[in-house]
């Protein structure tokens, strides 16, 4: 399931990049090139090492073809639309009066009693002192540096 969802996510990402990639930038570049006037360029100097070549004549391969005239679309007469029937006017009875709700006097809210302050004293936890224990020295492994060991004390 994970691989198919990854494939779908990748396909959506590629489609978004393709759709958003060159869509507007090409049109903007063409519009900018069409609307801005480029400064007149100086005529290019002829390169002395390359001789000028005559332009070849391009033969017309496809003869001009005249298309037949497009036939006119015939007019179609539609039958007249039937008249829309009118809805008859209905007289509605008068709306009954909305009864008024009588005003009700509510009793007063009782006073909320105050909570007495907390008078319970919690004793502090007593932690006994731990005795100092001397550990035996750690055996050194040959050819293995021990950077985490403290250096020997200086006398």
Describe it.
The mean pLDDT is 80. The two termini are 69 Å apart. The chain has helices at 2-21, 23-35. The protein has 155 residues and is mainly alpha-helical. The radius of gyration is 50 Å and the shape is flat.
What's the total number of strands?
0
- Give the percentage of residues in beta strands: under 5%
| Helix percentage | 10-25%
Can you summarize the main beta sheet?
none
What is the end-to-end distance? 69 Å
Q: Order of SSEs, N→C?
A: HH
Keywords: Signal
Signal peptide: 1-28
Main traits of this protein?
2 helices, 0% strand
How would the blueprint of this fold be written?
Elements: H1 2-21, H2 23-35
């Amino acid at each position: 399931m994970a691989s198919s969802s990854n494939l779908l996510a990748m396909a959506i990402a590629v489609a978004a990049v393709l759709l958003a990639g060159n869509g507007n930038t090409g049109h903007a570049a063409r519009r900018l090139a069409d609307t801005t006037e480029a400064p007149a360029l100086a005529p290019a100097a002829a390169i002395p090492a390359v001789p000028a070549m005559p332009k070849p004549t391009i033969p017309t391969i496809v003869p001009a073809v005249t298309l037949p005239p497009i036939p006119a679309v015939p007019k179609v007469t539609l039958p007249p639309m039937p008249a829309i029937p009118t809805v008859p006017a209905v007289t509605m009875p008068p709306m009954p009066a909305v009864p008024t709700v009588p005003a009700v006097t509510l009793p007063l809210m009782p006073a909320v009693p105050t909570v007495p302050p907390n008078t319970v004293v919690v004793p502090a936890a007593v932690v006994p002192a731990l005795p100092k224990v001397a550990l035996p020295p750690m055996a050194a492994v040959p050819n293995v540096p021990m950077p985490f060991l403290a250096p020997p004390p200086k006398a």
